[in-house]
């Protein structure tokens, strides 16, 4: 896949709400980690979530495919409320791709097996079709030549690109990225961001927690700023970075932009 950071944005965002959180609250014991969260992400939209450590960004991501249950409020994916358990939950989880900081690949399976496993087991795709799709996706993220290796034989950037291919293989409606480049050596950050940027341009719906402000400016339709479990402000990247409305956001930006 070739990523051109200067390419025109993809097709206009259509108006279909894909991920909708309404009045979502969550506690860990006494700690109120998500406070009255209201967030709508439309099909084709790229939302970057930023905010200080501990503000609830990862928890927010994890609630969207119910890795974390919520206390109250509602979450819908493409109009369907999150099922609590069972087959409905498995189906929903396969609609919501996840890419974590720590890759989470199966270490005893090859790159190719990592990418075909979900489609075969969960989506019931036949093996040869899953194989073809996996090769195509590995080409798309630029690592088809590594298909028969094991994760430990790859660089961090390559492993993260496998994780992205694996998420794409499920044909998800939305992909959540939780600090996908934070564990990478600096020289590998860009190759992963390039893959993400071209996914964004191609119209993939994405929710991305990241400290990569260049990516946010280039690829995000909207920046959501969280602090202390709340969405403090949300705006276009241009507005947010040049003219943050809240003191909290100004303070945060001054710290990350000058460190
Ligand atoms: N499983 C858990 N049990 C108890 N507390 C938790 C749990 N997971 C997270 N927390 C707490 O909830 C708060 C929000 O955590 P979360 O990981 O969502 O923050 P974050 O914004 O992703 O931070 P970071 O930028 O450091 O990744 C933190 O105070 C954290 O310590
Ligand atoms: Mg986090």
TrEMBL record:
Catalytic activity reported: a polar amino acid(out) + ATP + H2O = a polar amino acid(in) + ADP + phosphate + H(+)
GO molecular function: ATP binding; ATP hydrolysis activity; ATPase-coupled polar amino acid-transporter activity
Keyword Membrane listed: yes
GO cellular component term of the entry, any: plasma membrane
UniProt-annotated location(s): Cell membrane
Residues covered by the ABC transporter domain: 19-253
One Pfam family in the UniProt entry: ABC_tran
SUPFAM superfamilies assigned: P-loop containing nucleoside triphosphate hydrolases (SSF52540)
EC number: 7.4.2.1
Key words, A-Z: Amino-acid transport, ATP-binding, Cell membrane, Membrane, Nucleotide-binding, Transport
Enzyme class: translocase
Membrane topology: Peripheral membrane protein
Family statement: Belongs to the ABC transporter superfamily.
Protein's name in the database: ABC-type polar-amino-acid transporter
Organism in which the protein naturally occurs: Allonocardiopsis opalescens
């Amino acid at each position: 896949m070739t990523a051109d950071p200067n390419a025109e944005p993809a097709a206009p965002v259509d108006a279909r709400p894909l991920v909708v959180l309404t009045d979502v609250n969550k506690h860990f014991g006494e700690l109120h980690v998500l406070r009255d969260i209201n967030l709508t992400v439309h099909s084709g939209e790229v939302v970057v979530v930023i905010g200080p450590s501990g503000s609830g960004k990862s928890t927010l991501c994890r609630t969207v495919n119910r890795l974390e249950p919520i206390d109250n409020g509602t979450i819908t994916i493409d109009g369907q409320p999150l099922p609590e358990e069972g087959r409905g939950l498995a189906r929903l989880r396969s609609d919501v791709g996840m890419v974590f900081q720590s890759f989470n690949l199966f270490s005893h399976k090859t790159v190719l097996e990592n990418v075909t496993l979900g489609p075969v087991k969960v989506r019931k795709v036949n093996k040869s079709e899953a194989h073809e799709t996996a090769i195509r996706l590995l080409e798309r993220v630029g690592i088809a030549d590594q298909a028969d290796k094991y994760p430990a034989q790859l660089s961090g950037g390559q492993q993260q690109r496998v994780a992205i291919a694996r998420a794409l293989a499920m044909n998800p409606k939305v992909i959540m990225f939780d600090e996908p480049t934070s564990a990478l050596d600096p020289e590998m950050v860009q190759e992963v961001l390039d893959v993400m940027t071209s996914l964004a341009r191609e119209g993939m719906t994405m929710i991305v927690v990241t400290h990569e402000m260049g990516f946010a400016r280039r690829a995000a339709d909207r920046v959501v700023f969280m602090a202390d479990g709340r969405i403090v402000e949300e705006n276009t990247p241009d507005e947010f970075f040049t003219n943050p409305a809240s003191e909290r956001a100004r303070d945060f930006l001054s710290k990350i932009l000058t460190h």
